[in-house]
Amino acid sequence: MTFTYLDQPELFVGVSDENSRCDLCHRQKPCFDAAGFFGEDELAFICPECLSNGRLYERDSYTCQGDVAELKRQLHEANPALNKADIDDLADHKTLELEKTTPHLVTWQDWEWPCADGDYARFIGYGSKPLYKQLANDSDAQSLFEQSLYYTLKEECEPGELWEDVPKKAIPDYAASSNYSTLFYVFKSLHSDQIITLWDSD
Ligand SMILES: [Zn+2]
């Protein structure tokens, strides 16, 4: 399964058993649970194929919410020659793609999907000290973590103290994540090696 903005949904989201029925194609097959989706239309299940093929565009339903204000800011910075209407079109197009074709990540709080380099970033896993160490190529994992905190979090926390709360053990999948009441969500830019971290708690 490949999705632009979420790596390895089989690990981080999971699918139901064979007995569920997709609300879009009505076929009985393993599906994503759609109960946590946003919007007016209530869906129970959507299969990975329908989600990736954009069938959610037909419904008032979306799986997450993008940080569109920051995306516009980044797009404007990268393309100063484009006028506001063009930036808005580009940002709205990318935001719909994110919100209509990305598997729903279960989180403690509702936060806006982060962006980097003028695009939404890809979720690559739950933050843990081993993961940051690996991302830092065994050099300074803590610095990487501190620099990766999304701008929305910079004001409200002391990065050095927050590092103490980062789990010491890797969190390989959604089932393991449910053992933690504070979670770190790690994203990678689609266009560079930039890492972004969000965190929340119950
Ligand atoms: Zn389907």
Please, could you describe this protein's structure?
It is a single chain. This protein is an alpha+beta fold. It has a domain of 87 residues. It has nine helices and seven strands, in the order H-E-E-H-H-H-E-E-E-H-H-H-H-H-E-E. Strands 5-6-7 form a three-stranded antiparallel sheet, covered by helices on one side. Helix 3 crosses helix 4 and helix 5 crosses helix 6. The longest helix is centred in the middle third of the chain and has 18 residues. It starts with 8 loop residues before the first helix and ends with a strand. 34% of the residues are buried. Bound molecules: zinc ion. The site of zinc ion has 7 residues, from helix 2. Zinc ion binds next to helix 2.
Write the layout of secondary structure elements.
Elements: H1 9-12, E1 32-33, E2 45-46, H2 48-52, H3 68-78, H4 84-101, E3 115-116, E4 119-120, E5 122-126, H5 129-135, H6 141-148, H7 151-154, H8 159-165, H9 174-177, E6 182-188, E7 195-201
Antiparallel strand pairs: 1-2, 3-4, 5-6, 6-7
The structure holds zinc ion.
Zinc ion is lined by residues 22, 24-25, 27, 47, 49-50.
Specify the number of helices: 9
What portion of residues is helical? Answer: 25-40%
List SSEs in N-to-C order.
HEEHHHEEEHHHHHEE
Q: What average pLDDT do the residues reach?
A: 95
**Secondary structure tally: strands:** 7
